[in-house]
Specification:
Layout: H1 2-21, H2 48-62, H3 64-68, E1 89-91, E2 103-104, H4 122-131, H5 146-149, H6 154-166, E3 188-190
Parallel strand pairs: 1-3
Antiparallel strand pairs: 1-2
Helix pairs in contact: 2-6, 4-6
Length: 197
Amino acid sequence: MKTRHRLIAALGVLSLTVACTTTTFNPLEEYEALEPATILEPPAPRTASEAAERGRYLVGILGCSTCHTDGALAGQPNPERRLAGSRTGIAYTSPLVDQRPGVVYPSNLTPDNETGIGNWSRTQLVQMIQTGVNRHGTRKLSVMPWPAYSRLADEDAQAIATYLLSLAPVSHQVPEPVWPGQRAKAPYVHFGTYRSK
């Protein structure tokens, strides 16, 4: 019995010695921990042509031509007036409340000096994109979704401005905005969210 206890004690000391002298196997010992990146930042454009190309892409995905191209709001876009403003307006007050709603006509975004943005600086355009405030410091009945555009990176807003200023100028005057209660002389559509009762 004593021999058995001595044998168990010896095995215990041997186990303790082996446990203290051997290292635990680590299968990741030769690997480095990394943080995964699931959202990649686009590279900033390096040249004016790269900026204009990125601006063209952004104008496309933001759907600017849907409102700012003549005929697009009526389902018949005029390719010769792409981004040159619309003679079809957008009611910015509810037609359920105002029998004669306020209407804004999307502006000419081509660099025409008389009817478009030809006299605007890049800084003024970026301000309009991100805040809805025009170069005169006012927000004119804007239905442009500038609150969403305010989240654009500065590089992207600059790229959009670069692209718009690179377009061929198109002379196209859009109708003046209509205040609620006034009669609109040009056609318009209603945008809004309505709920059934």
